[in-house]
């Protein structure tokens, strides 16, 4: 039962990155689009692509938090204590972008308030996954100091490090990349909007590559065994190779205007990134500055709690997933009918 809970834990954060991350990416792509006409095109297609189901995406984050709180309370307590600043900023970002999107989308008057809502939306879209990545980086980089001598050592330097920031930038880059790729198929074939999205997809792909190089460079400079984390097992090595292959196929699809499998390829690429980045640590989830670590196989809740949680997740997934899939299919059919 413990492995079922761990599987759902990994799956929830993976799905949040693939779906909720693409939602964040909609604002990031708009932020990184500097041509005024292109920005309008990007905004319109992102609203129609991400808008209808964006609220449902946060379900995966909620599931992740619940699993941590119920199944791994010691880890939850440690992370929420020493990372409370980036976690609060991340939650504020989720609230800010959600409310600002609603206000700007349904505001009947195009005035300065609407411009303010747009700025809040696009900057919150970038900063929210940035802080998510920072928290993830702090868990594996050994930067959390559980015996601080002052406030800064315990609650600022535990997460504010070059490596953690580089992981945050990489997370934001992945979100922007997914959003640009996902939106291509919703644009009319060979329209100005689709051409803009193809160009933005290539730019976001470059953003992912550069930010990945940054993570490796900063990790090596910080004397972290980042190469060993990823390449010490065949699974990590194969995941990286398959991820690179998927990226090459995505680029080929963009060049040849073949978009039938482009969403699947992009999602697989980012999912394989996550496999490569997490498999090398298993079963350890948190590394501390004093050299100790916390394991998913040892530092979990009571066995009865884990069993109940596993059954709740299995039953809940049977109830939720079919309706979520129906929701996505229903909106995709509606968009196809509107586009064609």
UniProtKB/TrEMBL annotation:
The keyword Transmembrane applies. It comes from Rhizosphaericola mali. Keywords: Cell membrane, Membrane, Transmembrane, Transmembrane helix. It is a multi-pass membrane protein. Its main location: membrane. One of its GO terms (biological process) is aerobic electron transport chain. GO terms for cellular component: cytochrome complex; plasma membrane. InterPro entries: Cyt-d_oxidase_su2. It comes from the Bacteria. This is Cytochrome d ubiquinol oxidase subunit II. The chain crosses the membrane at residues 6-32, 53-76, 82-99, 120-143, 163-184, 205-224, 230-252, 264-288, 308-331. The keyword Membrane applies. The lineage of its organism: Bacteria, Pseudomonadati, Bacteroidota, Chitinophagia, Chitinophagales.
């Amino acid at each position: 039962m413990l492995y079922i809970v761990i599987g759902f834990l990994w799956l929830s954060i993976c799905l949040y990155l693939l779906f909720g991350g693409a939602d964040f990416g909609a604002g990031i792509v708009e932020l990184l689009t500097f041509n005024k006409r292109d920005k309008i095109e990007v905004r319109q297609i992102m609203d129609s692509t991400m808008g209808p189901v964006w609220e449902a995406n946060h379900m995966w984050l909620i599931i992740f938090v619940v699993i941590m709180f119920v199944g791994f309370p010691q880890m939850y307590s440690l992370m929420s204590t020493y990372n409370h600043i980036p976690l609060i900023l991340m939650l504020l970002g989720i609230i800010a972008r959600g409310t600002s999107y609603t206000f700007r989308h349904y505001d009947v008057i195009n005035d300065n308030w609407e411009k303010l809502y747009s700025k809040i939306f696009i900057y919150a879209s970038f900063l929210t996954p940035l802080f998510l990545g920072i928290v993830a980086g702090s868990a594996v980089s050994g930067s959390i100091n559980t015996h601080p001598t002052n406030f800064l050592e315990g609650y600022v330097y535990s997460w504010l490090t070059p490596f953690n920031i580089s992981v945050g930038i990489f997370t934001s880059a992945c979100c922007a990349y997914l959003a640009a790729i996902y939106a291509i198929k919703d644009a009319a074939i060979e329209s100005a909007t689709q051409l803009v999205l193809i160009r933005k997809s290539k730019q976001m792909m470059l953003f992912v590559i550069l930010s990945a190089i940054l993570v490796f460079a900063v990790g090596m400079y910080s004397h972290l065994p980042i190469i060993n984390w990823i390449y010490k097992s065949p699974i990590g090595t194969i995941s990286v190779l398959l991820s690179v292959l998927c990226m090459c196929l995505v680029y080929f699809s963009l060049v040849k205007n073949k978009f039938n499998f482009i969403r699947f390829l992009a999602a697989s690429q980012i999912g394989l990134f996550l496999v490569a980045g997490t498999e090398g640590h298993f079963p350890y989830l948190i590394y501390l500055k004093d050299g100790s670590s916390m394991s998913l196989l040892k530092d979990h809740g009571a066995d009865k709690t884990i069993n109940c949680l596993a059954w709740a997740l299995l039953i809940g997934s049977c109830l939720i997933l079919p309706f979520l899939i129906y929701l996505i299919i229903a909106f995709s059919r509606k968009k196809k009918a509107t586009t064609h």
